[in-house]
Amino acid sequence: MDNAATSKSFIPQTDGQALDFIKICAAVFMVIDHINTSLLGSTQPAMFLLGRAVFPLFCYALAMNLFRVGPEKMPRYAIRRIAPRLLILAVITEPIAQLSRDIGPMGNVLFTLGFGALVAGLTCRLKDWHIAALCLLSLLPLYFMPLIEFSTAGVMLPAAFLLVLRGRKIGYACVFMLLACINLPVIGNITEAVTSQDIMGITLTAAATIITPIALIRYAASQPQTGRYLPKYFLHVFYPLHLAIIGIVHYWITTAGN
Q: How far is CA 87 from the centre of its chain?
């Protein structure tokens, strides 16, 4: 077993009720974010900023699930269990996501998490600097034409969190670098000069993506590390279900307006 990060680490390990607390926070913030984007036309900045914590929290939870099985079993566990489960659910959920969120050609976030589990499992035995180099390279496609949410940088984020959980200092640089960048605008979509207001928005977005999830993880580490709040597959059901409900409400509002 690797020299693991302890509860005193800046990004600590969590398990049991503490890890479920993180998942619950991610689920609540996800609903808030999707209500803002799908029903309120992305008009609420506070709801948007809360939503920036969702993906990092799910990536951390995914990394914790991989970390617990150890480096010897991790590749097989990722390839045979976690990644297929997430990717199958992503395919099932995609029509619902397209109808409820209108995300265009990008695949839903479960594709990103599924590929992220696969990459984290396959790279766990590489040298630390190899993984760090992959994290850096993953930023390049992020700014042009992402095919899935959070693009390749999002795919690498679970591997970066895994480095931290294994007690590797370089993992912090990888995590902070990816968190600072995953919600920045796509270069191909920028057609006008960047204003001071744009810079402020980018700064707030990056700060929310870094500060909120890490603060919640650190708080969760003080919670009980045994027992569970959630059934095992709660989030697997919750994700497509909440999208379907939001889609129905959006359809009802649109129909009633006409």
A: 15
Q: pLDDT tens digits, the chain, 258 residues: what are they?
A: 344 444 578 999 999 999 999 999 999 999 999 999 989 988 999 999 999 999 999 999 999 999 999 888 999 999 999 999 999 999 999 999 888 765 556 789 999 999 999 999 999 989 999 999 999 999 987 766 567 889 899 999 999 999 999 999 999 999 999 999 998 765 444 445 567 777 888 889 999 999 999 999 999 999 999 999 999 889 999 999 999 999 999 888 888 766
Q: Which pTM value belongs to this model?
A: 0.92
Question: How far is residue 49's CA from residue 116's CA, in Å, rounded to a whole number?
Answer: 23
Whole-number Cα distances in Å, 178 to 25, 33, 88, 139, 222: 21, 20, 26, 8, 26
133 touches 159 (CB < 8 A)? no
